[in-house]
Specification:
This protein is α+β, with helices and mostly antiparallel strands. The strands form four sheets. Strands 3-4-9-6-8-7 form a six-stranded mixed barrel. It has a six-stranded mixed beta sheet with strand order 14-15-19-17-18-16. The protein has a four-stranded antiparallel beta sheet with strand order 2-10-1-11.
Length: about 775
């Protein structure tokens, strides 16, 4: 049991440390790392989305401002996934697939040191040519050259009519590292999209400098030479790309992580290893009284003390080394399974994890040394005569050591379980909170621009013909699925007010179950793009629909209640709903209001059948809000699962240790129990004494665990605007769970011990 526990401890430690290495090494694997910078504006707050979302004209001025800039490129983080089809050689078979697409300059690949396996970055000089990652090329055109193949799509509005619906593969680049801000997208030349514009902001700007020392020179050169007649085109500062992952932990645009979450993983990895190590050390220490006579008999027969101690330490080291070797055998499949489930981002690969493997092997050696040193010194330092004649099984020092170790591992288990319960409560609140719309009665699916332009009304009528569907609406974005939406700053009575702008069909609020509490809802006559309905958060910004003020020429016709379309990592944001004319073919998000009384999964199946009838070759994904919100809160849910899994492992290892301790304690107490039973003691008082001893240790460990558990909960919830806080539930549930399991094990084993025939114990003891 101790071998298995120590093996699982090493496995868990290495799996979690691979994840920690993945996060710590973010964007450090590019050939040009150390010289890549993102352009940020200094005139905005750290949390302002437009701090590093720039107009293209402004970005172009920055790229050309200094000779110290070797290369520069824009990227657009808002296009997202679109559906492509790739024709096979026979011209008939097609692969339909979903991929992210991005618009860049050809210099983008120089900035990030990309390598090409086919073609070159120069191929992107043609606006209809794309560069695809090697992984996608192998998937689509395995064994064939990818250059020259045609990718077709239905999203012409994104790239402009002049490019058509067919894109030609001009280059294949080697995949970027997994832990990088740069994704393995399909890359396309930006062409004339918003060229020369200083208004709409839709782009990041990345620079490759000739040296890290040129950073301040480039900043001062641009800031001293350019002066825009604008309040929001300000001076710039350059942020190293390696810092983005942790610096923008609250951003929905970049891949991001939290240093606190990373430290939680580090603490859990060491906690699991610590519990496994404590079990192992306590086990070897508890064996000491059994070995006293054997060791001291060998001393009398001539064995030297150093040799005896070395043999005991070597045994402990070899045992620990065997556990480490077993861990190496199972870590690759175990971490791959966890990566497939999305619990970790990177599986263990020995060639990439040599330093971690060496460090873990050294840790195994250290645990073996620690486990073997105390018992070896203890059992060899006793006088031989005393050891041969005396009864060493009740050694006070050994008992105290085992008690301290047991309390320590219990404390660690309590802290982890308390934190897990808090994570569950907070995440359950995030998913189940009332967002101001009827999440349980709406299904959402994204269609293409061509689908909307040609078949929107057909789709609406076909879906409404189903008994399960009450109504269908459309919008430009997925409400409630992101922290980033179309954002505008309106002038309201002479002062700027920034809000999300949500373009939709007139029946959108009705389909979503959003009541208009002031004024009126949209009607078909409001399909002018100039009528606005605001939410309460916008009204709280000072917009008064009854005051007669102008919102940049828009007519405010109504107000909803508390509608939250972003995550609770942010404040509830102001929203302006605007009904667009039917000619706007970019409203590709379809919202389907479900009738009451029907099974939601069966409804989705019926909806998918209608969508298939519209376009059998398209990849439609009909979603319920459970999955939409699950994706929105994916980092939190992922951490809950990881922490829960490894905390449960820690708790199991702790129980394994307790099982071993109870077994040894009862083994040492056989004679005492037998004598007391001969003199008339009942079973129940004997069991109660054992239970009381372990209950006292449980209580001591719990009291030690309360402060760090409280601190961990408070720090974790700091990242949320709305939080469930700290209640007694986490502490009571954790104490009850571990306490009941422990006492059940102790009671069962004590019953077996006191039920044994005392005559047998007296004969052998």
């Amino acid at each position: 049991m101790n071998l298995i526990g120590l093996t699982l401890g090493f496995t868990a430690f290495m799996v979690l440390m691979v994840q920690v290495g993945y996060e710590r090494g973010f964007d450090r694997n590019h050939p040009t790392s150390g010289r890549i910078y993102r352009v940020d504006k200094t005139g905005t707050g750290k949390d302002d989305i437009f701090r590093n979302i720039l107009p293209r004209g402004y970005a172009d001025d920055i790229i050309t401002c200094s000779p110290h800039i070797e290369a520069g490129s824009i990227t657009c983080p808002f296009i997202g996934d679109i559906i492509f089809s790739a024709a096979k050689e026979d011209g008939r078979m097609q692969d339909v697939f979903k991929s992210r697409i991005n618009v860049v300059y050809p210099e983008f690949f120089k900035v990030f040191g990309a390598e090409f396996v086919e073609g070159s970055a120069g191929a992107l000089a043609d606006d209809t040519t794309v560069a695809i990652p090697q992984s996608l090329a192998e998937k689509l055109f395995s064994g064939e050259p990818a250059v020259g193949k045609v990718l077709s799509h239905n999203e012409q509005y994104i790239f402009g009519e002049e490019r058509g619906l067919n894109l030609v593969v001009g280059a294949v680049y080697r995949d970027f590292p997994e832990n990088s801000q740069i994704r393995n997208d399909i890359y396309l030349n930006a062409g004339d999209i918003q060229k020369g514009s200083y208004g709409g902001a839709n782009f990041n700007c990345y620079l490759l400098l000739d040296s890290p020392d040129s950073r301040e020179v480039v900043e001062s050169t641009f800031n001293g030479a350019f002066d825009y007649d604008s309040d929001w085109l300000t001076d710039i500062e350059l942020t190293p790309v390696e810092e983005i992952y942790f610096a923008d932990a609250g951003s929905a645009i970049y891949k991001n992580g939290s240093r606190s979450r990373m430290w939680i993983l580090i603490c859990i990895s060491f906690a699991v290893l610590l519990i496994g190590g404590i079990n192992y050390t306590t086990f070897f220490t508890a064996l000491a009284p059994m070995r006293v006579r054997n060791i001291n008999t060998r001393k009398i027969l001539g064995s030297s003390v150093p040799a005896l101690r070395a043999s005991l330490v070597l045994e402990a080291v070899l045992f620990s080394g065997a556990a480490f070797v077993l861990a190496l055998c199972i870590i690759a499949p175990a971490s791959s399974a966890l990566a497939a489930e999305g619990l970790v981002d990177m599986p263990f690969r020995l060639p990439q994890q040599v330093s971690l493997t060496v460090a873990s092997a050294f840790t195994a050696l250290l645990i073996g040394l620690i486990a073997g040193l105390f018992p070896s010194v203890y059992v060899t330092s006793l006088p031989p005569a005393l050891a041969l004649k005396g009864d060493m099984q009740y050694s006070l020092s050994g008992k105290r050591f085992r008690s301290v170790m047991m309390i320590l591992q219990y404390s660690v288990s309590f802290v982890l379980l308390i934190f897990v319960i808090s994570l569950y409560r907070q995440n359950h609140y995030l998913i189940s909170r009332d967002n101001g719309f009827e999440k349980d009665r709406v299904a959402v699916v994204k269609i293409s621009q061509n689908h909307y332009a040609k078949s929107a009304e057909w789709l609406r009528q076909s879906l409404m013909a189903l008994d399960e569907v009450e109504d269908v609406a459309f919008s430009m974005e997925c409400m409630g699925g992101s922290d980033v939406y179309n954002t505008s700053t309106f002038d309201y009575n002479g002062r700027p007010i920034r809000t999300y702008v949500f373009y939709c069909s007139p029946n959108f609020l009705s389909v979503m179950g959003i009541p208009v509490v002031e004024g009126r809802n949209f009607s078909e006559s409001d399909r002018t793009g100039r009528s606005v309905i605001i939410n309460r958060a916008a009204a709280d910004q000072g917009i008064d629909m009854y005051a007669g003020g102008a919102l940049d020429g828009f007519e405010i016709i109504g107000q909803t209640g508390d509608v939250c379309i972003n995550s609770l990592r942010q404040e509830v944001s102001p929203v302006c709903y605007i009904a667009l004319p039917e000619g706007y073919s970019s409203m590709t998000w379809t919202y389907i209001r479900l009738a009451e009384g029907y099974d939601r999964l069966e409804c989705v199946s019926r909806i998918n059948a209608v969508l298939c009838g519209m376009d059998p070759a398209y990849l439609f994904e009909t979603m319920l809000y459970d999955s939409i919100l699950g994706e929105l809160y994916r980092p939190e849910i992922k951490q809950e699962k990881v922490v829960s899994l490894f905390s449960m492992l820690a708790a199991v290892l702790a129980l394994v240790g307790i099982f071993g301790q109870v077994l040894l304690d009862l083994q040492y107490s056989r004679r005492t129990i037998a004598i007391r039973k001969v003199y008339g003691a009942d079973n129940c008082p004997l069991i109660r004494e054992t239970l009381a001893k372990y209950a006292a240790r449980l209580l001591a460990a719990f009291l030690i665990a309360v402060p760090p558990g409280w601190f961990a909960i408070v720090r974790w919830q700091e990242s949320f605007v709305e939080k469930v806080g700290v209640s007694g539930l986490e502490f009571v549930a954790a104490f009850a769970a571990i306490g009941l399991l422990t006492l059940a094990v102790v009671a069962l084993m004590s019953w077996r011990a006191v039920s044994a025939n005392p005559v047998n114990s007296l004969k052998t003891e």
